[in-house]
Design brief:
The structure holds 2 protein chains of 2 kinds. Chain A has 16 helices and 2 strands. Chain A is an all-alpha fold. By secondary structure, chain B is an all-alpha fold. Chain B has a single domain, classed as ABC transporter involved in vitamin B12 uptake, BtuC (Orthogonal Bundle). Chain B contains 11 helices and 2 strands; from the N terminus they run H-H-H-H-E-E-H-H-H-H-H-H-H. The model of chain B has no long low-confidence stretch (mean pLDDT 85). The chains are: A mainly alpha, B mainly alpha. Chains A and B meet through helix 6, helix 13 and helix 15 of A and helix 4, helix 9 and helix 11 of B.
Chain lengths: 311, 288
């Protein structure tokens, strides 16, 4: 295991001590930070390792939120509905990936983006099952006081984040991760040397979907109310990419660092400039892409002192 | 009779869809950039028409003349100063960059114009035409003709003018165009400016028909996506064919399934097209 992966797991374990010295608000922030990290880490599997520009994160998230929400409304407890959501998302997106990942570049980006639209419209129209545009109320899961609730959902999200991180690190060290980076560098050549690219890409797509769906499920149980324009918000697709870009695409530690940094910035901007927060996010994206395209992990002290070179 | 009405509606709507998408298609084809600001440009054009009509009662037809150069300069500068820096980067970078720019522009519009829906109502209203039981609103008809005229103008520009031939050359083969002495950076900026100008003009025309709000920009963008993929990328005729097909599918879908399924239907069609025929109905390499 590389040093940065050990550092990542250590960081996450330290994160578990948050309830010792934080109130309900800090726990709320912590839960959201864990959720963002799950989204960014998952995107990194298909966007970072395999190099496919996926904009489907919002589709996975909304799918998970609605599936768990509907199951909870049918009277199933939280844990089985979560597990069902995770497995369903894994299988469904494995199949979907086999179809969608035949596309490359711009076409794949557009197809993944329209996946969000299709799912949102389907949920909007299936009023009997999902409540349509009226949204879906979700029964309280535990209901034993504010603090107990906050701690419960924090640990639920944290546990999922830990599982995601372990899987992503395992993928990055395995034959699968090696195959994915071959696909990123040259898919045709990877196929020539006998790598089953379709299978690898489908697995990557499914892995990048299942944890996001489970996170959506926990989110639904946590906020008790979801509606299509909330959980299928296209920002859920863009934010993980921005986080990964901030931290440095490909490295799990960088991606989680980017997620935490992005979350901190968002919190400050939201709190102080609510009316222009999307504009500030836009400025952040533009500056990042123009001046720091390889993320913060590319910033090393010696770069600052290096002479300017023409390359 | 209703068959004729559905067909006429599809024809009118299809030309407007083509007008919405043609600038998007031009930018995608020539620059290889998925331009997510396109929807906000259209809305900004609508606000321009609305503002000119409300404050100085300048009719939207003249607003077209104001909008085109303004948006051209805006787009030209945007491409020259920002997008040209990352033009050769992978799709993830250019797409996310235009998304960031879209967030800025859209937030600015919400901040200055508020998110309320507004409507440009012509005084006196133009009424509607009725022929053999088929009803067409006159303002929609004129907007359609104007949309067709804009599309035709772009076609002529690309075919007849020197700069148009240079744009086509860059689209066909960037490296060869450089060898022939074409200034690619400037052509990129001109193409993006043209795309922005077409979006602004489309916005002026949309102001006559649809309510105006910054929140509608994603709807326009979605239509442009679908039209481009259906018709085939980067050609005027492709955009026209895609617009007509989309309008027809939406019209028929609305008639038989209900209006709530129209969007679902169009996006499912988009995904099917992407998988089965990614080059679109009239797709081939080359711009006219």
């Amino acid at each position: 295991m590389t040093r940065s992966n050990v550092a990542l797991l250590a960081l996450l374990v330290c994160f578990a001590s948050l309830p010792l010295f934080g109130g309900a608000y800090a726990l709320r922030l912590g839960t959201t930070a864990c959720m963002y990290s799950i989204l960014a880490l998952s995107w990194n599997v298909v966007g970072g390792f395999a190099g496919y520009p996926s904009f489907a994160t919002a589709a996975f998230f909304g799918f998970g939120a609605y599936m768990t929400g509907v199951l909870l409304n049918m009277g199933l407890p939280l844990l089985p509905s979560e597990l069902l959501t995770l497995v369903a998302s894994l299988l469904l997106n494995g199949l979907l990936g086999a179809v969608l990942l035949r596309l490359r570049g711009h076409y794949f980006a557009i197809a993944s983006l329209s996946l969000v639209e299709v799912l949102r419209e389907l949920v909007n129209n299936a009023t009997d099952l999902t409540g349509g545009g009226m949204g879906l109320n979700i029964p309280l899961a535990s209901g034993s006081g504010i603090m107990a609730d906050a701690i419960f959902f924090f640990y639920a999200m944290w546990g999922l984040l830990l599982a995601t991180a372990v899987v992503v690190v395992a993928v990055s060290m395995s034959k699968l991760g090696f195959g994915l980076s071959c696909i990123r560098q040259n898919e045709t050549a990877a196929g020539m040397v006998g790598l089953n690219a379709t299978l690898y890409k489908s697995i990557a797509f499914a892995l990048s979907a299942c944890f996001v769906s489970a996170a959506g499920g926990i989110y639904a149980a946590w906020v008790h109310y979801i509606d299509p324009s909330d959980v299928f918000d296209v920002l859920y697709s863009i934010e993980p990419i921005v986080m990964a870009l901030m931290g440095g695409i490909g490295s799990p530690l960088g991606v989680v660092g980017g997620a935490l940094l992005y979350f901190g910035l968002e919190e400050v901007v939201w709190r102080n400039y609510i009316q222009i927060h999307t504009g500030v996010l836009g400025v952040l994206i533009v500056l990042l892409l123009l001046f720091l395209p390889h993320g913060l992990t590319s910033l090393r002290p010696r770069i600052l002192f290096r002479k300017v070179k023409h390359v | 009779m209703w068959v004729a009405q559905v067909l006429v509606n599809a024809l009118v709507l299809g030309c407007l869809y083509a007008c919405i998408s043609i600038g998007f298609s031009l930018v995608w084809g020539v620059l290889n950039v998925i331009n997510l600001i396109h929807g906000s440009f259209i809305v900004l054009g609508s606000y321009l028409a609305f503002g000119l009509y409300q404050s100085m009662s300048i009719s939207p037809w003249y607003a077209l003349i104001v909008a085109a150069p303004l948006f051209f300069v805006f787009g030209y500068l945007l491409q020259l100063l920002l997008l040209n820096r990352v033009i050769n980067a992978p799709v993830l970078v250019t797409l996310t960059l235009t998304f960031g720019l879209d967030l800025i522009l859209n937030n600015a519009m919400i901040y200055f114009f508020k998110a309320d829906y507004r409507k440009l109502t012509l005084n006196p209203p133009m009424g509607s035409l009725s022929l053999f039981g088929v009803v067409v609103p006159v303002d929609r008809l004129i907007a359609t003709v104007a949309a067709l005229a804009l599309t035709g103008l772009l076609y002529l520009l690309l075919r007849r003018l020197r700069v148009g031939r240079a744009i086509v050359a860059v689209r066909l083969d960037r490296d060869a165009a450089v060898l022939m002495g074409v200034n690619v950076k400037s052509i990129h900026a001109i193409a993006f400016g043209l795309g922005a100008a077409l979006a602004g003009c489309a916005g002026v025309l949309m102001a006559l028909i649809y309510p105006i709000s910054p929140l509608t920009s994603s709807t326009f963008l979605g239509k442009a996506f679908v039209v481009c993929v259906l018709g085939g990328l980067g050609s005027v005729s492709g955009a026209l064919a895609g617009g007509l097909l989309l309008a027809l599918v939406e019209g028929v879908g609305t008639t038989f399934l209900g209006p709530e399924y129209a969007t679902t239907l169009s996006f499912i069609l988009l995904i099917i097209f992407l998988i089965v025929r990614p080059q679109g109905l009239l797709g081939r390499k080359g711009f006219e």
